[in-house]
Write a structure and sequence with these properties.
The protein is α/β, with parallel strands linked by helices. The chain has helices spanning 6-9, 22-33, 84-93, 101-118, and strands at 17-21, 38-42, 49-56, 66-68, 126-128, 135-141. A six-stranded mixed sheet has the order 4-2-3-1-6-5. Strand 5 and strand 6 (135-141) form a beta hairpin.
């Protein structure tokens, strides 16, 4: 009879590194800026290398999952999410532009695209998992 130790499968200290899609990270940061409780989630069984995936927190989530706050994966110099109010203020402050709704929409879309493209350059090398004092390395997948 084969014996398996299920306690090992749920021990987050088994995790040495997590891989995160750049697309999932950007989506998580953007969702939290819009007020959604969005995280990157790692689910058991845990092993040395794990993939963290985009997840919207639900009241009945499994307690054995690990939720990683998206902001904890960014360096302190990461650019802030450009809100519509921010981009309207930037456009109004520009000497060479006259504010209009159409210019604002175009400018806001441009600033969002720049922000999304630059965010993966600001990912930390390691992070501490929630509810543990356990550090893991962070690998970014994709562009």
């Amino acid at each position: 009879m084969e014996h398996t130790d299920s306690a090992m499968d749920t021990d987050p200290t088994d995790i040495k590194s997590i891989a995160i899609s750049a697309t999932d990270l950007v989506a998580a940061i953007e969702s939290t800026a819009d007020g959604s409780e969005t995280v990157l989630r790692v689910t058991p069984p845990f092993s040395g290398r794990m993939r963290a995936r985009l997840h919207v927190v639900q009241p009945d989530d499994d307690d054995n999952t690990i939720h990683i706050e998206p902001d904890s994966l960014l360096t302190t110099d990461a650019p802030p999410y450009p809100t519509p109010d921010d981009t309207a203020d930037e456009l109004r402050a520009a000497d060479d532009e006259t504010y209009s709704l159409e210019r604002h929409r175009t400018y806001h879309e441009q600033r969002l695209a720049e922000w999304r493209e630059s965010l993966p350059d600001h990912v930390v090398d390691s992070t501490t998992l929630n509810d543990t004092e356990h550090d893991v390395t962070v690998s970014l997948l994709g562009p």
